[in-house]
């Protein structure tokens, strides 16, 4: 502390105001500052599996889109709209393949079906268009506007581009952050079911409807050329409403009947006469005649019947299980787990999946270097609606077990992990599907742990969105005061704090803590977890005494409830090293607090996240106590450990190096202190921008060192 009146960032990242009106915290999570493996590559190809054999009856649309791209005029937004299964994505994919294969134009493909997918995809676009690791890290952590970074990179792209925002069926998420913009360097193509002009001001809208009769028949003939004549195919197409998705499913079925092939007429007769396809209406929302789920339901039920006849009931079971999840890429590794045994034998999963792939009921896609299965949303909705009620408990339980195994059991701080984000839409979709309170509680517990894992890799926007939405979905079955709902809301408050919403986070965390204390007691682990999050917020709102009092109560409660060697107990004590003034650090716990790093080492090991954090805070306390040589040795070791684990540009690394600069300066090594701070400021400028408070605070400290070096030394002579 300098005692000055201007706020400045100290080495643990806090900005102190000596007059007490503000207390801001720079976030330091423990993760890696390195590129996302597979991230940029994932936006260079459409995540749509197999393209259609031929694109039928879209020549006029394609010519218009092709001409707009070929003119080299940027700044346009085109919106392809229509009902699910109409082939909007197929048109976008065809244009994407053309412009990237025949023109000197970069293609960028983003799944915009939910906030987390949109944000991750757009940041991958920024990485592809030249964003630096520090810029991406700051945007990912919520320290700078992510959309601004993306569009700055698109505007300065050396190559023209086509950006596809696929499955934008909730266009309101584009406004949350201003993701949809225009640029003279490229063209934006959106696919959506939502056609209201208010969502797409200034865009050119193009309706994608069902196919004309002749072209619909050709789709069936493309896929199953030996199953019947064009006229027979046309009659089947009429029965299927000429919806491309339904035609694709029907063609896939007809093309794979080898022992006893079906004809088009036989298939059409089954569509007309089999009442089992009406299962689509059982337990579903009321459907209009135009709802595409009617049309898709006519096709997949016949396919599942064929699986049963061929001795493959597992394929039907697997499809019903996939329908508990979202219509987003689902990592195949998730299915390779014993938890699937409640629905189908694990040894038969491979065969069942291959059957679904052969019949076009699912596709293989590669996302961020992860092999995934993906099925169309309309198909999954129809399968889910038709699933007999007596089967849903086992399906929900299996889906929860599979997700539970895919999420780290004890999430730890670490580098950004894009594969975690792949699980978010599936966790939320499962919470939308479940109908029993016990299943909802289990699914919410997994979703909350997923939010913690995202939080600890620094993906705070995804962590906040996951926990907030999961709590809202589960509350309908569990009620607002259920333990798991309150725990999820507590995690949402923690993520909101990291995103800078201090006032909102305080209100949310205080409400949650009051409810938990009344229901479970003040020393319940959930109550204490919320208390720990609340004291962080209070400290950053300048209410230091209240924060310290709550932190001390949290330490006492965790020591009693969890034991002295529990990581959460040790972490809370390490926070006291950071929060207390020097005099109190010496007297706290009879002086035992200053030996905390050795305790952490003994209980957790030297490389544990909590141990490293305790040593960092201990070095800060030593610096405040004027024990500069000891502080210098410790923070140097901590900084080196951080670099090995997280990379050189990570926020906590920069904070450690800033403290190291202080200890070097205090020991008289001003030039070395300047050298350290030059790097810290440069990295913060690249990642956060020159006007960010953390950058400004670092620059102020650097200026202080430089002025100290230039200050003439006092001498006793004349």
TrEMBL record:
InterPro entries: NB-ARC, NLR-like, P-loop_NTPase, TPR-like_helical_dom_sf. Coiled coil: none annotated. SUPFAM superfamilies: P-loop containing nucleoside triphosphate hydrolases (SSF52540), TPR-like (SSF48452). Residues 62-194 form the NB-ARC domain. It holds the Pfam family TPR_12. GO terms for molecular function: ADP binding. Residues 20-44 have a biased composition (Basic and acidic residues). Residues 1-53 are annotated as: Disordered. PANTHER family: AAA+ ATPASE DOMAIN-CONTAINING PROTEIN-RELATED, ATP/GTP-BINDING PROTEIN-RELATED. This is ATP/GTP-binding protein. It comes from Streptomyces humidus.
């Amino acid at each position: 502390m300098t005692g000055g009146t201007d706020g400045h960032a100290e080495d643990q990242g806090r900005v102190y105001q000596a007059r007490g009106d503000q207390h801001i915290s720079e976030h330091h999570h423990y993760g890696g500052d390195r590129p996302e493996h597979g991230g940029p590559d994932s936006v260079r190809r459409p995540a749509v599996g197999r393209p259609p054999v031929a694109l039928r009856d879209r020549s006029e649309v394609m010519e218009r889109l092709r001409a707009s791209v070929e003119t080299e005029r940027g700044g346009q937004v085109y919106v392809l709209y229509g009902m699910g299964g109409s082939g909007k994505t197929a048109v976008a994919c065809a244009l994407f393949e053309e412009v990237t294969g025949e023109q000197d134009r970069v293609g960028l493909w983003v799944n915009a079906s939910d906030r987390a997918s949109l944000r991750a995809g757009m940041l991958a676009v920024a990485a592809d268009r030249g964003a630096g690791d520090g810029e991406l890290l700051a945007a990912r952590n919520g320290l700078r506007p992510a959309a601004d970074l993306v569009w700055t990179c698109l505007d300065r792209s050396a190559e023209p581009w086509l950006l596809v925002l696929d499955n934008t069926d909730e266009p309101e998420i584009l406004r949350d952050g201003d993701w949809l913009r225009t640029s003279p360097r490229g063209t934006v193509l959106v696919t959506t079911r939502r056609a209201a002009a208010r969502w797409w001001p200034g865009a050119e809208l193009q309706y994608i409807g069902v196919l004309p009769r002749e072209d619909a028949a050709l789709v069936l003939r493309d896929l199953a050329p030996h199953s019947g004549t064009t006229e027979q195919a046309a009659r089947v197409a009429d029965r299927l409403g000429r919806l491309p998705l339904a035609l694709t499913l029907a063609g896939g079925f007809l093309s794979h009947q080898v022992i006893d092939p079906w004809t088009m007429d036989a298939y059409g007769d089954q569509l007309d006469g089999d009442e089992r396809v009406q299962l689509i209406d059982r337990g579903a929302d009321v459907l209009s005649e135009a709802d595409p789920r009617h049309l898709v339901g006519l096709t997949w039920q016949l396919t599942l019947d064929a699986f049963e006849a061929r001795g493959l009931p597992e394929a039907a079971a697997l499809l019903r299980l996939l329908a508990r999840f979202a219509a987003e890429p689902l990592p195949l590794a998730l299915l390779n787990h014993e938890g699937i045994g409640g629905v189908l034998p694990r040894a038969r999963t491979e065969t069942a999946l291959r059957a679904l792939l052969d019949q076009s009921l699912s596709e293989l896609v590669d996302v961020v270097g992860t092999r995934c299965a993906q099925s169309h949303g309309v198909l999954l909705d129809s399968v889910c609606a038709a699933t007999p009620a007596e089967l849903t408990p086992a399906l929900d339980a299996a889906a929860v077990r599979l997700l539970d195994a895919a999420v780290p059991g004890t999430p730890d701080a670490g580098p950004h992990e894009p594969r975690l984000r792949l699980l978010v839409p599936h966790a939320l979709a499962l919470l939308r599907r479940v109908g029993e309170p016990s299943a909802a509680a289990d699914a919410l517990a997994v979703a909350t742990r997923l939010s913690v894992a995202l939080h600890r890799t620094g993906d705070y926007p995804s962590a906040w969105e996951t926990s907030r939405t999961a709590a809202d979905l589960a509350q309908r079955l569990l009620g607002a005061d259920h333990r798991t709902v309150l725990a999820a809301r507590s995690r949402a408050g923690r993520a909101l704090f990291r995103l800078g919403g201090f006032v909102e986070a305080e209100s949310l965390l205080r409400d949650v803590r009051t409810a938990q204390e009344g229901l479970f007691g003040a020393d319940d682990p959930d109550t204490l977890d919320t208390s720990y999050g609340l004291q962080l917020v209070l400290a950053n709102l300048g209410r230091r005494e209240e924060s310290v009092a709550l932190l001390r109560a949290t330490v006492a409660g965790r020591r009693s409830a969890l034991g002295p060697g529990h990581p959460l107990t040790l972490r809370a004590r390490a926070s006291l090293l950071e929060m207390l003034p020097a005099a109190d650090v010496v007297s706290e716990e009879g002086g035992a607090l200053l030996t905390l790093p050795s305790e952490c080492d003994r209980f957790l090991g030297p490389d544990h996240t909590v141990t490293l954090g305790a040593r960092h805070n201990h070095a800060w306390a030593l610096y405040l106590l004027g024990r500069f040589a000891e502080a210098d040795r410790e923070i140097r070791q901590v900084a080196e450990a951080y670099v090995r684990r997280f990379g050189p540009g990570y926020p906590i690394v920069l904070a450690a190096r800033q403290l190291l600069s202080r200890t070097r300066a205090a020991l008289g090594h001003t030039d070395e202190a300047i050298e350290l701070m030059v790097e810290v400021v440069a990295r913060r400028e690249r990642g956060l921008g020159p006007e960010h408070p953390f950058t400004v605070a670092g620059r102020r400290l650097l200026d202080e060192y430089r002025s100290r070096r230039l200050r003439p030394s006092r001498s006793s002579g004349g």
